[in-house]
Amino acid sequence: MLDNHTIIYSDGSKALNRATGFGFVIYRGNKRIAQGCGRLSIIEVFDGEAEGARAGLQRALPTSQGQPIHICINNTSVIQGIRSNIPDSSQAAFLEIQAVARIYTIQTHWSPGHQRIKGNEEADSLAKEGITLLVPRGLLPTLSGIKRLTQERKQHQHRKW
After folding, report:
1. CA-wise closest residue to 70 among 112, 113, 108, 27
2. Residue 68 in domain
3. The predicted structure's pLDDT at residue 6
């Protein structure tokens, strides 16, 4: 990548207790310029990955100086949602990224997980850190989170029966 391009690595992570977080790290050339992480409400890892990409993009835009931005993600479904077909879950994140991509040069790239890619490993660690944070007030569950919760409750009721 060129030294004036902004590169965002983002990731999502989910703990055994269902806590889900996201993380991102931003580079310009080889220099790390920002990072962040957060905790989310009732959601799936997919949603965390989308929210991580959105949060990273929000953080990168003010310093991008109009230069190309590359979002590196290890989830191909999230990449498809950014590029074209917005899924039912996390629509706000995908719509925001697509709106920005109509104004700025945004490219998405697949970054395979757990392959010792520095930025991807850092985003993964930050996503795990995000799991430990408190859920911000007012966050709503995503559609996939509601579906999972409904399925779990149905299974629980079935076992009780």
Report:
1. 108
2. yes
3. 96
Strand partners, 48: none
Structure-block tokens of residue 159: 């076992």
CB atoms within 10 A of CB 71: 26
Nearest to 21 by CA among 63, 54, 49: 49
- Angle among Cα 62, 107, 74 to the nearest 5 degrees reads 105
* Per-residue pLDDT tens digits for 119-151: 999 999 999 999 999 877 776 677 777 777 778
> Distance between CA atoms of 60 and 53, rounded to whole angstroms?
10
Does residue 1 fall inside a structural domain?
no
| Spatial contact of 110 and 121, defined as CB atoms under 8 Å apart | no
CATH code assigned at 72 = 3.30.420.10
Kindly report the pTM of this predicted structure.
0.85
How many Å is the Cα radius of gyration of the chain? 16
Long-range contacts of residues 55-60, Cβ cutoff 8 Å, at least 24 apart: 55/10, 55/22, 55/24, 56/8, 56/9, 56/10, 56/24, 56/25, 56/26, 57/8, 57/96, 57/97, 57/100, 57/106, 59/24, 59/26, 59/34, 60/6, 60/8, 60/26, 60/34
Q: Given CA atoms 64, 35, 74, 149 in this order, what sign does their dihedral have?
A: negative
Q: Considering the domain boundaries, does residue 12 fall inside one?
A: yes
